[in-house]
Structures are given as structure tokens and as C-alpha cells.
Request: fold
Amino acid sequence: FRLALIQLHVSAIKSDNLQRACGLVREASAKGAKLVALPECFNSPYGTQYFKEYAEKIPGESTQKLSEVAKECSIYLIGGRSIPEEDGGKLYNTCTVFGPDGALLAKHRKVHLFDINVPGKIQFKESETLSPGNSFSVFDTPYCKVGLGICYDMRFAEMAHIYGQKGCQLLIYPGAFNMTTGPAHWELLQRGRAVDNQLYVATVSPARDEKASYVAWGHSTVVNPWGEVIAKAGTEETVVYTDIDLKKLAEIRQQIPILSQKRCDLYGVEMKK
Reply:
């Protein structure tokens, strides 16, 4: 099946972001994409100072638009971190998924909050405004089972391993790595998660905006279960297409059967809730 990643240029005007995103979703559908993903923070600038201002409830304005365009195009639509979600007085970094009938299939709240300090390069603390999610998020399609993470979630191999145990063959991480962590780890982490679990990994970033307070790395990418980069964007606004070949995935798992060779008598990773 064809996967499309929309590397969107995000402005400070929510309505413009929504309109442009929906237009690119329609374009991707017209080119045969069955599953379309938007980047982390696609409808607002990324930064702790913006989260409260742009926050919405779910359902709300942004998710209603996503539901409508998913139904119109009869696709599976992953809404990046569609919005900072407000719920019960707390804010979450939330990704929603809508099916071809417009129904909400999954709502993933970022589990691992991005609190880092690289002296002289970047300091960022999502926990100043956001609360963490506490659950894994998997949804089914006619093609395969898909697992969701958001950006920093990708650094935690245990999470990807649990998704593999749950039968996922594709992991999608809307993300916004920056100009320090992007060149160092963006592709490396994707390839690691793909090879460790013998599945496809897709990441979708906002386009780079050098004038933004937080500059995203860009380079939305798809990696196959062999660890090969099979599609990759540059830094500009674009749509990346790739065909997900589940037969190739099955062949790789047969050739190097690590999933059946794990020493569960010696070690293990388990989901606690």
C-alpha cells in the first residue's frame, strides 16, 4: 500500500495551516496514498509558549477538519500532533487517527516528554506545560497493524519493542527534531527501531523554518525492515511517497528469524498497563 508523509510548512495562523494540510492530504489521496501522515505540531508553531494558546479539546476544530478530509478521501489519516490537547485542565501532545469513514480510531498522547539540556546548543522542557500520556496506541488497517509514537517517544526502544510484540508492521512517529538532535540522531534512531523489530518505520517532520523560535530538522523519512532508507525529504514543504511492501517484511523475518530466536528465558520487555 502507498504511504504519504506530508512535510508541512507551519505558520502562526492555525486556519492557514489547516487549509494547506487538508489540501495536501487531498493531493496525496489523488496520487494513490491509502495512509497519510501529518507532522508533529502541524497546526501551530512548536514551543512551550504556544501550547496553551493553540490548545483544543478533542473533538474540536482541527480534529473535525481531519475527520472530514479522511472521509472525503476515504483514507487513513494520522494527524501528527494535530493539536496541543486540553483535557481536564491539563495539556497533552496528542496525535489522532481517523479512518476512511471519518471515525476516530486512535488518540496517542506523547508518552515521553521532551526535557533536554545540551549545554551551548539547546535547552527545552515540554513538562513546563504538558502532561505525559500513559498508554500505547495501535490501530488496524486492511493492510497491517500500525503503532504510534510522537517524536521523543522514538528514543525509547522498549516502546517500539512492545509495538512489535503487538503485531505492528509499521511504526509512525510524527516528530520535530531540531538542528542539534536532528543531524545526530534522526535517521539513526529510525534505522535502529526498524532493524531491532524488523518492521517499517516512518517519521514525518514539519518543514524547516529558519525564522522560527524552534527550527525543525525536516527530512521526513521511511526506513524498511532491513534498515534501508527508502524515502526521504529535504527541508522544504513536500509530500514523500513510498510503497510499503509487506511481502518484503515477511521475507526478512524469515531470513533472519530474530523474533523467534529471542531468549525469553533470560530477558524480556513487558507492557505494564
User: Anything to note?
Assistant: The chain has a mean pLDDT of 94. Residues 14-30 form the longest helix (17 residues). The first strand starts at residue 2 and ends at 7. The two ends are 32 Å apart (CA to CA).
